Amino acid sequence: MVLQEQKTSGRSRTKRWLLRYPRGLPIGIFILIAAITVLSIFAIENGEAERDRAQLNARATAIASALERRANASSAYLRAGAALLSTMDDIPPDDFRRFVSELRLDADYRGAEGIGWAQVVVPSEIAAFDARAGDPGTRNELYPPLSAEQPFAIPVTYLQPDTERNRRALGFDMYSEPVRRAAMEEAERTARPTATDKIVLQQEGDGQSPGFVVFMPVFEASEGGRSLKGFIYSPFNARDFLQSALELEDAGAYGVRLYDGDRETENLLASNFEDEAEQPDDTREAAMTVTIANNPWQLVVFERGQGGLSGLSMATLIFGLLVGALLMLLVRMLTQQAQEDEASLAWFEEQASIRNSLTRELNHRVKNTLANVLSIIALTRRRADDLQEFADGLDGRIRALSATHDLLTQSDWGSTPVRSVIDAELLPYAQGEDRQVHMKGPDVELAPNDALSLGLAVHELATNAAKYGALSKSGGVVDVEWRLVAEDLVRVEWRESGGPPVKQERSRGFGMDLIERIVAHELRHPVELDFDPEGVRCALLVPVRRAKEFMIRANRPGGAPLENEKA
């Protein structure tokens, strides 16, 4: 009886509320659901905005890395050129043209107008410089005339490739122009590649397309220590330089601007959209400083905003206003959305970290390669009796490094098979029917630096065999065999037979020095080199390293590669 009375009393109170507030109670419930819905929409929009900002920052970092990689590639070529030109007393046009053609400029050098040489010309040498005028229509006399307060001129002497466009710059005194002069003086002071501020390239003629120049000083020995000989340089069209980097990073929906200094219209170097003067108001942007050849610039990446609510917010609004029972589902959706946002942020941060690590690794490997090149140049110079012998020796060894570099590039600087390295070096000698080259061994993968050292050693052995050994005579045979002597060590044996008898009394050559010093040092194992009368024999021990010791991506947790990257 009591329970029945309580139930009747409860229903009566509910009825009284409905009767007393026929509109207020539904409106109150609606307002409560609407408030929860509004808060939910705010959280969703804020999360998507954070994700978009993180994605924009990651894209800006990727574009900045691409620009710096291209600048580093240019600087590496200029450093190599400076090292070579500093050893030459005179720089004939044919030698400079050959040097540029041998660089084999690849896709990383796109956006550049070429490579040029500008020598220092003092007033007493101007007449001699002008006397070397080229073909009719090619302007290479020094201009503008040297002013009284200018101690010397630095005119464009050569600029390769030799095109009609590049010929416009020949003879132009770059030291007479303040912006170029400032960059030259900074490059001379620091002995590093240095980029100019915003300029218009001389080869643009009457055009106004902005550009810049990267200078690398070339010094020569003098009584006082060293003196400036000139500059090897690369001119860049700023828009082409930016576009070449954006092609790798798929800038698509993003607007990109590159400024020389503050974000002022007059400082704009390049942009990837036509309306460079104005930027829409409803945009998100990310700005950062990029260093291009010792010159800090400002990169701005922006994305046009989308008006109105996102699709997820609209769905939340509709379901929240119509059905209060979906609140639990809404919470679940918000939790899932937050997890997705967190995962996206972590992925973008990991991408940025890996790109920075790859950039540092690239710089390290470029420095190692240049160190090898400088060592080869030094040893070749000491062994050469004349310039032609020096050039021929250097040509072959640089080609050997280039061939192995091609293999490493094809494998994304991962592991490289022993057979591929040997094939690349012996291919020119394995075509004739009167000579035989036999190769035998298991599948063994080498680390990049070890593959370079092995390729250099095989090149020297093959060159010696082609000149004096088994490959110089019909019927000669070269056997190359390799085998694993330990889990982390492979033995590569070179044997010649059927060639001329090997002289037992001979002078010590560069090849022996290179193999026993540079190669042995790089491989960290001694080299066995035997000049048997029946044919040269050589044995090398090459380390076999695990991938995680030299591949950055192998160090990731679980060893899983990144999306859209090769493992």
TrEMBL record:
Enzyme nomenclature, EC number: 2.7.13.3
Q: Which UniProt keywords apply?
A: ATP-binding, Kinase, Membrane, Nucleotide-binding, Phosphoprotein, Transferase, Transmembrane, Transmembrane helix
List the molecular function annotations (GO) for this entry: ATP binding; protein histidine kinase activity
| Record flagged with keyword Zinc | no
Entry's transmembrane regions: 21-44, 309-331
Class of enzymatic activity (EC top level): transferase
Alphabetized SUPFAM superfamilies for the sequence? ATPase domain of HSP90 chaperone/DNA topoisomerase II/histidine kinase
Q: What's its catalytic activity?
A: ATP + protein L-histidine = ADP + protein N-phospho-L-histidine
Cellular-component GO terms for this entry: membrane
Please state every residue range assigned to the domain named CHASE. Answer: 87-300
- What domain of life does the native source organism fall in? Bacteria
Name where it's found: Membrane
Chief subcellular location: membrane
**What is the designated name of this protein?**
histidine kinase
